[in-house]
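Input record, target 12 of the design panel.
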C-alpha cells in the first residue's frame, strides 16, 4: 500500500463510487428494476458482489492488471490534485442523475488527445450500432410478444434463470472494460494487500448503490417502456451484452459504455413507439433527446477536464 499517494487514493475512492454508481446502472439497472419487489436489496448485492470479486481477481491473476489491458495505451502518471477533480465532477453529475461517460470524464485527465479521439470515434460507432440494432430487434420482438403481459406461470422460472444468467455475463463484460476508469489512479502492478483493500471498497460502494436502489441515475432505466418486466429486462441485457462484448474484443481502446447503453434504449423506445400503440412519438423524442443532451453535458465536461489538465501540467 506504500505505492498509494494521497491524491491517487483520493482519486481512486472518488472514481470507485462514481463509476459504480453511474455506470453499473447500465448493466444492473434493468435487473434491479424487475427484481426489487421479489428480492431484498442485499440479496442482489451479494450476487452482484460475487461476480465483481471474481472479475477483479481473475483480471489481476491472469492479466496482472484489473483493467484487462485497457490502460496499455495510457501510461501510468503520478496522480495530482487535478486528476482527482475528474471523478469529483463525475460524482456530482451522478448525484443529479446525469448519465455521463465515465470513460471520457475520468480517462481524459490521463490520456493523450490521440487516444481520446479514438475513444470518441469508437463510442459514436457504439451508440449508432446499438440504436440501429435495438430498433431492428424490437421490430421483431413487438411482432412476437406483448412485453407488458404477465409471464405465464410455467415460464417464469425460465425467464428468471435467463435474466440472472444474462445479467451475470453482462456485469462481467462491463467490469472487464470499465474497471480501467478506476484502475487508472492505481499503480499498474498491484500487491495482494492492495487488492484486498480494493475489493472491500468496491463491495461497499456497490452495497450502497443497491441500498439506494440505484439512486437518481436509475430513472434513466425505469422511465423507459416496460423495463420493469422480466422479459423486457432480459432481452435488453442480452442485446447490450452482445454489443458490448463485440466492441470490447475489437481492440483495447476504451469506449463509453454509457453511449452504447443510451443508444440501445433510444433505438428500443423508437421501435416500440413505431410498431405499437402503447407509446406516442411525441413522448419518445423528448425522452431520447434529453438522454442524448445529458451525454453531451458529460462530453463537454470531459473537454473541460482535458483543457484544465493541460493548462496545469
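The sequence produced for target 12 reads:
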Amino acid at each position: 500500500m506504500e505505492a498509494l499517494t494521497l491524491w491517487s487514493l483520493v482519486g481512486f475512492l472518488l472514481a470507485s463510487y462514481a463509476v459504480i454508481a453511474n455506470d453499473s446502472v447500465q448493466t444492473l439497472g434493468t435487473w434491479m428494476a424487475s427484481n426489487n419487489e421479489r428480492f431484498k436489496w442485499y440479496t442482489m448485492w451479494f450476487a452482484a458482489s460475487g461476480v465483481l470479486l471474481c472479475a477483479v481477481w481473475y483480471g489481476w491473476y491472469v492479466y496482472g492488471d484489473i483493467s484487462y489491458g485497457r490502460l496499455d495505451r495510457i501510461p501510468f502518471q503520478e496522480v495530482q490534485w487535478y486528476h482527482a477533480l475528474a471523478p469529483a465532477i463525475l460524482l456530482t453529475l451522478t448525484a443529479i442523475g446525469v448519465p455521463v461517460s465515465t470513460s471520457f470524464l475520468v480517462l481524459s485527465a490521463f490520456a493523450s488527445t490521440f487516444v481520446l479521439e479514438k475513444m470518441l470515434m469508437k463510442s459514436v460507432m457504439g451508440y449508432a450500432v446499438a440504436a440501429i440494432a435495438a430498433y431492428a430487434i424490437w421490430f421483431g420482438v413487438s411482432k412476437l410478444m406483448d412485453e407488458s403481459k404477465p409471464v405465464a406461470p410455467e415460464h417464469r422460472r425460465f425467464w428468471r434463470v435467463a435474466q440472472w444468467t444474462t445479467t451475470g455475463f453482462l456485469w462481467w463484460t462491463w467490469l472487464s472494460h470499465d474497471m480501467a476508469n478506476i484502475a487508472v489512479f492505481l499503480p499498474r502492478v498491484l500487491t495482494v494487500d492492495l487488492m484486498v483493500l480494493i475489493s472491500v471498497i468496491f463491495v461497499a460502494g456497490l452495497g450502497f448503490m443497491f441500498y439506494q436502489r440505484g439512486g437518481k441515475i436509475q430513472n434513466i432505466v425505469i422511465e423507459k417502456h416496460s423495463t420493469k418486466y422480466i422479459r423486457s429486462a432480459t432481452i435488453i441485457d442480452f442485446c447490450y451484452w452482445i454489443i458490448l462484448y463485440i466492441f470490447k474484443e475489437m481492440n483495447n481502446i476504451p469506449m463509453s459504455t454509457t453511449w452504447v447503453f443510451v443508444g440501445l434504449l433510444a433505438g428500443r423506445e423508437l421501435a416500440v413507439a413505431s410498431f405499437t400503440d402503447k407509446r406516442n412519438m411525441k413522448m419518445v423524442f423528448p425522452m431520447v433527446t434529453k438522454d442524448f443532451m445529458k451525454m453531451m453535458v458529460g462530453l463537454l465536461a470531459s473537454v473541460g477536464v482535458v483543457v484544465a489538465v493541460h493548462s496545469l501540467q
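The two ends are 26 Å apart (CA to CA).
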